[in-house]
Amino acid sequence: MAKGIGVVVIGRNEGQRLERCLRSLLQGAEKVLYVDSGSTDGSPHLARSLGMEVLALDMGTPFTAARARNEGFAALQRLLPSMHLVQFVDGDCEVDAGWLATGQAFLHQHPEVAVVCGRRRERFPQRSVYNLLCDLEWDTPIGEAKACGGDALMRVDAFAAVGGFRPELIAGEEPELCVRLRAKGWKVWRLDAEMTLHDAAMTRFSQWWWRSLRAGHAYAEGAYLHGHTPERHWLRESRRAWLWGLGIPVVIVLACLLVGGWGLLLLLVYPLQAVRLACRGGKSVRENWLQAVFLVLGKFPEMLGQLKFLRHRIAAGKSALIEYK
To answer: Are residues 174 and 247 in the same domain?
Structure first.
């Protein structure tokens, strides 16, 4: 068991997935704290039965994963004042037995790195197209990175120095944190090492749609916060959503008004874009085509997510959580 490493697990009604997650952390960390956000399936009892500390969030305050992680971090720091590294992990993920030692060794050897993460893989990619898409999404380049995901090992002093996650963000809080860390001179690194097995449990098109809409909202809010130079955070992703999800459809409608049905030929730009993306892919033929088609299709819910963020900004309101499961 490594001294000075704490783990913050967040979840709600994760059932068997949470049990797998917590059991995978019985060894390797000095202390594990589970943050529960209103579970009704006995998750807090399960965590306590495994010897974990439990923090039940006040659900009278709007929930976000960022808020849960921040409150978990603060509670864990009180319980373990000697903590110098903190692993954040979602309750639907199982942590690889060797990950904490691997991440700790890397951070010890690289004092300029504040955040290290490894390979997150989907547990059941064969069960649905949507699970497979998640698995492909997790397969990001190794080496120095701009951002991490929800599972990452971080230096406590670096995390605390920038104020942790923005608690009001309903999505995209991890890349936003990394923007602020990198602005302070820290680096983010991804290792070619197994880190977590994730269970998306996505079996319906509607789940994929809402997840993509949430991504669009995150792109819009990220660009609003850090879209200026030199970072230009998620500015490109936001512009693509507007172009493919709204700009081109508007042009097609205008073309139809001017030249009639011939304007519908412009719809060919979408399959042509899918062909272009598929030809650039580095996976199997099936995976390249699936990813390409859904990348193109995903621009429509991403555009709606952009609109959702814009509407709340204009109305000075607060965005509600966007959940897909």
So the answer is: no
Of 77, 318, 124, 79, give the one whose Cα is nearest residue 221: 318
The overall longest dimension of the chain from CA atoms, in Å, is 71
Lookup: tokens for 185? 């001179």
Q: Are 9 and 33 a contacting pair, CB within 8 Å?
A: yes
Check whether the bond before 230 is cis (ω within 30° of 0). Answer: yes
Chain segment 161-220, per-residue pLDDT in tens: 999 999 999 999 999 999 999 999 999 999 999 999 999 999 999 999 999 999 999 999
Token pair listed for 28 = 């390797």
Strands 187-198 and 143-145, by their bridges, are: antiparallel
pTM score: 0.92
Q: Which amino acid is at 257?
A: L
Do 177 and 226 touch, CB atoms closer than 8 A?
Answer: no
Same domain, 165 and 256: no
Spatial contact of 66 and 221, defined as CB atoms under 8 Å apart: no
Tokens 């990394």 appear where? 178
Domain that holds residue 43: 5-203
Q: From CA 284, how far away is CA 288, in angstroms rounded?
A: 6
| Other Cβ atoms closer than 10 A to 158 | 17
Q: Answer whether residue 107 is part of any domain.
A: yes
Number of domain units in the chain: 2
CB 18, CB 77: distance < 8 Å: no
Same domain, 170 and 267: no
Which residue's entry shows tokens 């000697």? 82
In a domain, 320, yes or no: no
